[in-house]
Amino acid sequence: MVIVSVLVVVGLTILLLPLARKAVNEFGLPLQYQDVIRQQAAEKHLDPAFIAAVIYAETKFDARTSSAGAVGLMQILPQTAEFLARRSGATTFRVSDLNKPSVNIAYGSYYLRYLLNEYGGSKVEALAAYNGGETNVDNWVAAARARGQTLQISRIPFPETRAYVGRVLSAQQEYRHTYATQLGYG
Questions:
Q1: Cβ neighbours of residue 32 under 8 Å, at least 6 residues apart?
Q2: Are 46 and 25 in a shared domain?
Q3: Does one domain contain both 17 and 69?
Q4: Is 125 a catalytic residue?
Q5: Are residues 64 and 146 in the same domain?
Q6: What is the mean pLDDT of each run of 10 residues along the chain (186 residues)?
Q7: In the prediction, which pLDDT does 10 show?
Q8: pTM of this structure
Q9: Domain span at residue 160?
Q10: Helix, strand or coil, per DSSP, at residue 47
């Protein structure tokens, strides 16, 4: 009887472990819309884990509108979206489109690519601009250069932005490791 009980417990553990692991990942490090993320990453020449990490840092994949008016999974401000729409040649864009995950991820990914291009590929500067604004980052970069340095995470003056950049870069590594297959690495 004891052997049967042990075998049942072992069998249930083996069967339920993948489900438990999946539940823990989704609760602690959620991932949704991986098809859209992979597509946008390929189109914008971005790491899919980078896009997922920004979504995680912004909303943990729970789309909403912020008190500042930022919309959707990637928390895009309407004026930023309108700038991106003009820049990308979109002709039928409406701010309400940002509520669609596929549109929001496309615009957020476009913005990340734009910022990486603007800041010479620096993820630290691009993420700081995504969170703290380009004007602030331009000032911080200029001040760092005047000291003969580059902008380091530890020298970002806004505590919220400093924490945000660190959170995204850390989450990027976690997404790459945890969701390698879902994000197209495996």
A1: 61, 101
A2: no
A3: no
A4: no
A5: yes
A6: 59 51 60 98 98 98 94 97 92 93 97 98 98 97 96 97 98 98 91
A7: 55
A8: 0.85
A9: 32-178
A10: coil
